Amino acid sequence: MEERNPGEHLSNAEVYEMADTLLRRHGKDAVLVANMQAGERLNAGDMEGYRTWKRLVMLVDGMLGIAQPERACLH
To answer: Residue 65 and residue 69: Cα distance in Å, rounded?
Structure first.
């Protein structure tokens, strides 16, 4: 995958590709990595990058939820 700058406008497909790459590289720590990146972007005043990384947090968290059914709440 070509490395993209999350501060630039990315298509949905590019964001999903980034989420998949994060999961492959970092496994269950991908959410933590994405949250750290979002914080760095926010501190730098890069709101577009911050929003992209927060999208990645939600996507990766959702992907991990599907891959790990034991995290589901049982009522």
So the answer is: 6
Task: Supply the pLDDT for residue 56.
Answer: 95
List, for residues 30-74, the tens digit of each pLDDT value. 999 999 999 999 999 999 999 999 999 999 999 888 655 555 555
Report yes or no: 67 and 26 within 8 Å, Cβ to Cβ: no
Tokens of 75: 């009522």
Q: Tell me, what's the pLDDT at 10?
A: 81
Asked whether 50 and 66 are in contact (CB, 8 A), the reply is: no
Question: CB-based burial of residue 26 (10 Å sphere; 0-12 exposed, 13-18 middle, 19+ buried)?
Answer: middle
CA–CA separation, 50 vs 34, rounded Å?
A: 10
The gap from C-alpha 64 to its chain's centroid, in whole angstroms, comes to 11
